[in-house]
Specification:
The chain is of the alpha+beta class and 134 residues long. It has 2 domains: 54 residues, Multidrug-efflux Transporter Regulator, Chain: A, Domain 2; 67 residues, Beta Barrel (OB fold (Dihydrolipoamide Acetyltransferase, E2P)). It has 5 helices and 8 strands, in the order βααββααβββαββ.
Length: 134
């Protein structure tokens, strides 16, 4: 019989080992105990649990793109000025009358389609400002 350690089974199912152990104690998941008292879960049981919505409830949709970024770290505005020199671009975004300027690569500026008047976000992380576009 092909069995997995509790931690490996939990990772495959998408839950924490503690949650899987609670399911075992509640009789919601079947395990085999080793002579040393450790739980092992069969691959068939892992597949059953991974497909069971009754145990995990509705699956959370992982946010993507701009939704994955904290609201306090992104400021929406309009590109008010771009100055390209060599490999770099200086991009200024007007955010409600306040300007944020960032230095990005010329290629990034081009790839993002940044030009005066387009909507963009200033993404603030620690001491740097990145520019992203919806």
């Amino acid at each position: 019989m092909d069995v997995l350690k509790l931690s490996d089974a939990a990772r495959h199912i998408g839950v924490s080992p503690a949650t899987l152990k609670q399911w075992i104690y509640k009789g919601l998941a079947k395990s085999i105990k080793t002579p040393g008292g450790h739980h092992r879960i069969s691959r068939g049981e892992v597949q059953r649990l991974a497909g069971s919505r009754r145990l995990t409830g509705p699956r959370r949709k992982t946010p993507l793109g701009l939704e994955a970024i904290s609201g306090r770290n992104k400021l929406q505005g309009i590109v008010s000025h771009i100055e390209i020199e060599g490999l770099l671009a200086q991009v200024t975004i007007d955010i409600g009358g306040h300007e944020i300027t960032s230095i990005i690569t010329r290629d990034s500026c081009r790839t993002l389609g940044l030009k005066k008047g387009v909507r963009a976000f200033a993404l603030i992380k620690a001491t740097e400002v990145m520019v992203i576009r919806p």
